[in-house]
Amino acid sequence: MSGYIEAQLIILCLSIIYAYGIYLPAASGQLNLGAAGFITLGAYASAWFNAGTGVSLPIWSSIILAMIFTGVIAFVISFPILRTRGVYMVLATFAFAEVVSGIAINLEFVGGAAGFPVDGHTDVSIIVPVTILVILFSFYFMSTRLGLALRSIHDDESVSTLFGVNVRTAKVVAFTVGAMLMSLGGSLYGHHYNYIEAQTFNVLLSIYILLYVLMGGTQTAWGPLIGAAFFVVVPEALRQIAESAGLKWLAEGRFILFGVFIVLLMVFRPEGVITRTLQDKIGGGLFGHKRFSSKETVSGR
Amino acid sequence: MLVIQQLVNGLMLGGVYVMVAVAFTLIIGMLNFLNFTIPALFMFAAVLMYATMMGQLPFGNDIILSIFGMEYRWVAGVVIALVVVALVSLIIERFTYRYMKAKYGDATEHALPLVSSLGFLIIFEHLVVSTWGSDPLTAVSPFGMGTFSIGTIIFSIPQIVSLFLSLIVVVMLSIMLKATKLGRALRSIAEQPDTAILMGVEVGRIVPIVYVITGLLCAISGVLFTINYSTVDAYVGDTVATVAIAGMVLGGLGNVWGAIVGGLFIGMLEVMSIYIVGADFAKVPIWGLLLLLLVFKPTGLFGHTLIGKGKF
């Protein structure tokens, strides 16, 4: 595998892991704009457990410890954060990410503002299988009773409560597990590039990850996969095309084109690329049965 | 004395945040969504102001120079920034609000406007990067660095003027909301859009006006930012707007006077935290305060409990 493709594959894999981390709460309608915070926690915690403690742990155990660490923090803050709703939740998670990054920059034992060199290397042969595991896990998670509960909360929270869904528990679990996935992605990032800096995990990263999920669609577990793949592959492909065809304006302006595309996609497919209706259409065409008639679902919902 | 000087500087910085915070609060109060194009509009106005003043526009520099001369190019900058940004804001209205309203009845049913506005943020940031590059752009202020002092406290004249200008604009806006027919229509939309339509308010005509007002607020503060702080780049909107969001939440979503108080307070808080705990750590007090506020008193100081509930 050439170095270029390998580098792109790793970016793709990390984006997919991050996207699933945001997807789990988003499946219940909770928009989390704090991806950067959880990624920072995971990357720094894993790097520190791996090398900073004096007892150098193997990579896999430090990654798992970092996930537990992030999970505990996410669990604790999920109770106050999930009290907020809608735009308040977007702002609260965003504020959380800013606080984490502000603290990380000032902790001298993890390098402070100068960044933190990371020991222990993970390469593509670890990252790709882990990504596949994350994808399988997310599909499984969404097919469980809890996953169904999340979907029902997304559609109507009060009706879910009436039907005996424990809304608080479902939301807290989704938020915490999502944070742990992002932590996993963050630690893989740190161990792959062997250098982390709190400034790289900024608000733009959080925005992009939230966009992966919302563009892909929050209704099915395919959404984040498609969204992240699309976001990573298309700009890169545009760059390749522009360079080989010698189109300077396209190479410089490909993100403008991409932004236009986001706006247009929201016009034509407001629930993201992959919706349940589309899934049933494709699934029905391939396997000859439908779980329910697509007419029963209101189009666009 | 140094502390008072810092407070004064913070107040000046707060003047920039006030207008952006008011822009956010208007959209969230009237239309119930967080408009992420506001950072883009602010940045675009600031960069246009720079480009016109320094003769860096992609075209038309000679015409501006021959009409206004070197001395008064800043006038052209103000006009161009205000007009272009207001127009851009109208285009954005078309895609973030009107279409969704027409198709789904309630534009904030989905996270749609939020995502579209993020799309516009990406478009404008890259538009500026591909035209002017991603390095900081330095403008020369047409008003020099005039200062006067009371005792040992130094005031910069352009900054004082901008602070008062922004306060006047915002106060006029709030009088307009309170006393005019348009203001009453706007408040009725904020309260209950469907009832407003039943009562004969032409929502389709009035929402673009909200966008133009937002665009103008962002444009004025962007222009003032270029004049006072002289260095702009494609990402200046992100930093200013995120702090302005904190100011808006502090004042209470949807409340113009709250946004003024919140914006000024957050400006002073930022400068004071930089002074006391250092630039790197300054993020923590601001965002920690915002986080605590959102959890324990999400309505802010003067907010309304209904705004932002269950919507994006």
Which secondary structure elements does this structure contain, and how are they paired or packed?
The complex is a heterodimer of chains A (301) and B (312).
Chain A: H1 3-27, H2 35-52, H3 59-83, H4 86-106, E1 116-117, H5 124-143, H6 145-155, H7 157-162, H8 167-193, E2 195-196, H9 203-216, H10 222-245, H11 248-268, H12 276-287
Antiparallel strand pairs in A: 1-2
Helix pairs in contact in A: 1-5, 1-6, 1-8, 1-9, 1-10, 2-3, 2-4, 2-8, 3-8, 5-6, 6-8, 9-10, 10-11
Chain B: H1 2-31, H2 37-53, H3 61-68, H4 73-104, H5 112-132, E1 137-138, E2 147-150, E3 153-156, H6 157-179, H7 181-191, H8 193-198, H9 203-229, E4 231-232, H10 236-251, H11 256-277, H12 283-296
Word description of this protein:
Chain A is mainly α. Chain A has a domain at 3-203. Chain A has helices at 3-27, 35-52, 59-83, 86-106, 124-143, 145-155, 157-162, 167-193, 203-216, 222-245, 248-268, 276-287, and strands at residues 116-117, 195-196. Mean pLDDT of chain B is 82; it is low at 308-312. Chain B is globular, with a radius of gyration of 19 Å. Chain B is mainly alpha-helical. The interface between A and B is large, with 46 and 52 residues.
Q: Stretches of chain A where pLDDT falls below 50 for ≥5 residues?
A: 293-301
Give the C-level CATH assignment of chain B.
Mainly Alpha
* Ends distance of chain B: 44 Å
Category from helices, strands and their pairing of chain A: mainly alpha
